[in-house]
Every structure is written in C-alpha cells, then in structure tokens.
Automatic annotation (TrEMBL):
Location of 4-aspartylphosphate modifications: D58
Lineage: Bacteria, Pseudomonadati, Bacteroidota, Flavobacteriia, Flavobacteriales
Coiled-coil parts of chain: none
SUPFAM superfamilies: CheY-like
Keyword Zinc-finger tagged: no
Official protein name in the record: Response regulator
Keywords of the record: Phosphoprotein
C-alpha cells in the first residue's frame, strides 16, 4: 500500500508533533513534509518535484495564513485540485464560510484534549486512505 504524502502546515511545532505522533501511534503509512506558514508551503507546492496527496493546514499563521494559502493554491492550475483540510482553533463561522467559498475539502476545530484530537486525525486519515484506494 502506497504511503500517503501529506504537506502539514502549522506555525506551532507542538501541533505538528502531535499530528505526527497520532500517525505513528496508529501505524499510518505517511510521509509528512512540514511547513511553518503559507509562504513556505507554497514553495513546497510549487516545486514540481513534490507531489502531495493532501494538504493539512492551520488557519491562523504569520506571513501567510491558511485562507490566503487556500486561495493561492486554487489559482495555480497544476495544484488547484489538491485536497486541502483546515485545522483550526477558531470557532468563527466567517472563517468556515470563507474556507468553503475557496474550495476547502474539509475543516475541523482542534480539540483541546489529545485523545479527541487523535480521534479526529485518525478519522481524517482513514477517510483519505480509503479515498486514495478508490481513485
């Protein structure tokens, strides 16, 4: 089975570490490239040597936030159809509305407890693994 290639974007190193821990603990076959903000992520995405199955991004980050990144990606033909998931601490319905207007594939609020966070990430990865096998 092919490893799921993920671009994980979050300015918080602890959040990125938590995501990787969930993958390892649940034996998900993933290759994860990390970026700290939208600008760095766009560099990875524009590099034709990189190919990602899914992009998972925080919403609120310095330099370029997740919404700006989403908007930019949707305007670049080579990568405009890549599935993008936003993970956020924000409960702002306007953020959610904007994300869906720009073509987000999914959105979830980061829960405070690690066990709830883990369940959400596992559910997300299982969905995308199934989706990858079908397509």
């Amino acid at each position: 089975m092919k490893s799921l290639s993920i671009l994980l974007i979050d300015d918080d190193a602890i959040e990125r570490m938590k995501f990787k821990q969930v993958c390892e603990k649940n034996n998900f076959s993933c290759s994860i490239l990390e970026a700290e903000n939208g600008n760095e992520a766009l560099e990875f995405l524009n590099n034709t040597e990189n190919s990602f199955d899914i992009v998972i991004s925080d919403l609120q980050m310095p330099k370029m936030d997740g919404l700006e990144l989403l908007k930019s990606v949707r305007n670049i033909n080579r990568i405009k159809n890549i599935p993008m998931i936003i993970m956020s601490n924000s409960q702002d319905k306007n953020h959610l509305k904007k994300c869906y207007e720009y073509g987000i594939s999914g959105y979830f609020t980061k829960p405070a407890s690690f066990s709830k966070y883990s369940k959400k990430v596992v559910s997300l990865l299982k969905y995308w693994k199934r989706n990858e096998l079908i397509s």
